[in-house]
Input
Amino acid sequence: MRLTLTLICLLSSLWVFSQTDTTENFDYSNFGDADGVKRFCTQKVLNQTPQRIISLGFEQYGAFEMPGVSFLTRQAPAQININQVNAIRAQVNVPVISTNKLIWQMGVNYWSSKFNVANPNVNEFATALSNNALLTAGLNTTVFKPLNEKNFLIFQASADVNGLFENVNDIQNKAMTASGTIIYGWKTSEKNMIGAGLARTYRAGRLLHVPVLFWNKTFNDKWGMELLLPARGFVRYNFSTTSMLQAGFELEGNQFLVRLPQTLSINTYIQRGEVKPRIMWDKKLTGFLWLNAQAGLRYNYRFDVVNRYDAMEESQRFFSSNLGNPLFFNISLNFVSP
Output
């Protein structure tokens, strides 16, 4: 609990610091350009879901099993039974520069998952999972650079601290992961943006370098889609400009350092990746305050415990668990951009 409060205070202070020079951020693309002045494309399509500046949410998984757990012992593999998982998720994205020539944002993120273990004494891994939260906290930055009226570049980078820690002193450089994406794209109209690029990601639980497809398209006043494959993809239905429904999926995960009292001389890592097919509803409450509600399935993609940073080989695994796939829900309040 002390570790969680410490990280929340840290993220809050980073958010306050990052706003010192952002009291006024105008989207100059809304103003007309004089003849002969070079024009630039904007970063959105019509009817797109609003961008979140501040987000605070709660997520819960239902019961599931974690079979085949055999961690640093010669005991037979055991099954860990999970009653539920409760997660707190928070994110802040602050515009640093917002002009028609460049949009640059800085952000912080926090994701803490607390496993309610039914049989915490079955082995040391179950005990650690029961006593500590599996958490991620980090910094990120995104740059949207329009080149002209049709072409643009997107740069995204993040650095996260991830782990199952007994205390703050267990955090070290081996708990950090770095991710990034670069995309070159075309905006063919106010309803269509498409791009392609390359990503370095831990979303599948281990380090991968993969090609990405970016495609935001509004078909008409009601229907659209927002894709960043393979990370996520959603079809959107707009009831109105203040209420919309989305259906699709997102791939989430990271690599987490494990520091247990009985194994402090050994670094081990959880490689956690999960696919979440889900339905999402976004509704404006008042002003720039929106509600987001989600429901879906948490499908296990990978849950490996390994003995080396960025381990890729079977010989480097302590165990690989085929987790059960529970239903989940998520609800959040979001302060969005105009």
In short: Confidence is low (pLDDT under 50) at residues 1-34. The chain has one domain: 2-29+40-52+93-111+134-326. DSSP finds two helices and 17 strands in the chain.
